[in-house]
Structures are given as C-alpha cells and as structure tokens.
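May I ask for a sample protein chain and its fold as tokens?
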Amino acid sequence: MNRNLLALCCTVSAVLILCLSTSAQKSRRSIEIVPARSYAPLKLETSAELQELLDGAVGQVMASFPDGKFKREEIAATLIDLRDAGQARWASFRGEEKIYPASVVKMFYMVALERQLEDGKLVVTKELERGLRDMIVDSSNEATQYMLDVLTDTSSGAELPEKDFVRWQHQRNRVNRFYSAMGYSNINVNQKTHCEDAYGVEQQSRKYSGQNRNMLTTNSTARLLAEIASGRINTPERTKRMMDLMARDWSKPSSDPDNQAVGFTGKALIDAKLTRAKLWSKAGWTSRSRHDAAYVETPDGLKFVLVVFTENHANDRGIIPTVTATIIQKMRR
C-alpha cells in the first residue's frame, strides 16, 4: 500500500472513530430526562392561616401520646391549598427535613417516566405499562426496580471497579438531574426499593451504610403532587394518566390496614363519611415509618395536598387520618 493511500485510510479511520464517539455521546445526552420547555414551577404563597392550622393538627396528634412518646422530630408535614391553582397557599411542619420516603418515591419515578415517554425517548410496551401500573397501584418493589433500570440504563449486579462504578452511578443519577433542573432540592431519588435489602452494586451505590439512600422532604413531595394535580408537570393526557394511577376508591372496604385507599388518608374520609370526596395518593411504609402523599377534593369545594411522613410510629395507623381529619374540619371553617 502506498503512503498516500495509507495516510488516507488512517484519516478515514480516525474520522469514523471520532464520529462514532461523538454519536455515542449525543445518544447518551439524548436520553437525559429534561423538563418540558413550557414547564413553570407552581407558585406557592406562604400562609400564616394554614401554618396555624397545620401546627395545630400536628400538635394535637403529638399531645395524644402520653409522656412525650411522640417526639417533634418523628413527624413532618406539608399542606398546599389548591383552590386557587394560580396562586396556591401553603404551610409546612419540618417540611425541609430529609426523610427516607419508602414507596412514596415511586411517584417521582412515575413522573420521570411519563416525561421520557412524552419526549419519545422511551417507547410504550405492554411490559412497561404493566410495570408502571404495578409500581403505583400495587406499590410493587419489583416493578419499581424495573422502572428505575429503564429510566437510567442501569441494572443490578455485582460490585463494580471504581471507574466502571462512577459511570454507572452517573447514569443512575439521571432522575436526580431531572428534578434538579426543575428546581427541586434537598432530595435523593436514585435508589431502588426493596422488600428486604440491596446487594452488590446497589449496596455499593448506597455507600454500604445507607448514606446514599433515597431521601425526600414533605415540601418537595407536596410540590410534585400539586404540580401533577394542577396539570403543569406534563401534558393534560399524561397528567390524567398519572392521576388515574393514583386514584383511590376509599369506599370499598378492605381488611388490609396498609391498603393505600383506606389505610392512610382515606380512613379520615371514611370516618367523616365524606361521600363523593375524591382521593389520589401514594403511600409508603416500612417497619419504622409510615407516610402518605395525598390530594383530596371534597364535595363542598376543598382542594388540597397533604403530605405526612412519620418515623418510629409505623404501627400507629391513626396518626395520618387524624391529621387529615383536623385539616378538613378547620379548612371548612
């Protein structure tokens, strides 16, 4: 081969390698989860009236436990009044405290997935639809693991060498970058949910002692649910799809105390006999925590988001319904 031809071949090869590398980088960037160009955060106005109401509801629950057995640091709550979606009012009790969210984080993965679908970066399949439904309706941990793999192009397995793990972790943080781009802060949403424990690279991602576990605040959770309920987080069609998945029929009896429809916020609607009240929610519970993120509409015009996280009171199933009942009574006045 003469020198000119050899030089040409080398040049072509270099260009091809560069193009392939550039293409791969563009491909990787193209599946980042990005907010819609039309997205605008929900405007929230601090309300002294709601603050007094929420503080009273939380204080009432704490006082019902004898000898200080319910500590202030064991509960956080955020309330958003959505009767005027253009200028929502809100209040919080320890609303910026980072707390392990259990299955409430699944709502964040649902929103990210619908964003990817709307942007055409994921394609709907029957399996994807099944996984999404099971994650939100049945709160399946296995479905959630599948959803996070799809969203981040990662998968569970053995621990990785440092260089490979850094790349893996960057991809797993894709959902975090999405929420950061929308102004969400003080949260971590990059871990799978498990029935027992994480192993291998999943435990490596948690930093072994849990320093990198999922964390949410009631403020961020309430904001997201309010942005879904008010229709600003995605298109009307996709917002409706998310709301349909979170719709809870609390009128149907259930013997399961952890049923998302009747075991959390829904119990307050049942006890108050609020027929025709509507509930959308995502609950979460572990052996030591009990949480609910709920959007409620009542026949007399109340529209509110209430998020309550509790720790060290997993078996005290009356806390969330009691706070909800007090909120409804006082907001009606």
Notes: The chain has two domains: 40-99+217-333, 101-216. Confidence is low (pLDDT under 50) at residues 5-26. The radius of gyration is 23 Å. The chain has twelve helices and seven strands.
